[in-house]
Amino acid sequence: MDSQKVSSQDIILTGDRTTGPLHLGHFVGSLKNRVVLQDVCKQFLLLADAQALTDNMGNYVKVRDNVLQVALDYLAAGIDPAKSTIFIQSLVPELSELSSYYLNLVTVARLERNPTIKDEIKLRGFERDIPAGFLTYPAAQAADITAFKATVVPVGADQIPMIEQTNEIVRRFNNSVNAEILVECRALVPENGARLPGIDGKAKMSKSLGNALALSASPDEIRQAVKMMFTDPNHLRVADPGQVEGNVVFTYLDAFDADQAAVEELKAHYRRGGLGDMVIKRRLEDILQALLAPIRERREQYAKDPAQVMAILKAGTQKARETAGQTLSDVKAAMGINYF
Question: Domains in the chain, please, with CATH?
Answer without folding.
Answer: 3-196+306-335 (3.40.50.620), 219-301 (1.10.240.10)
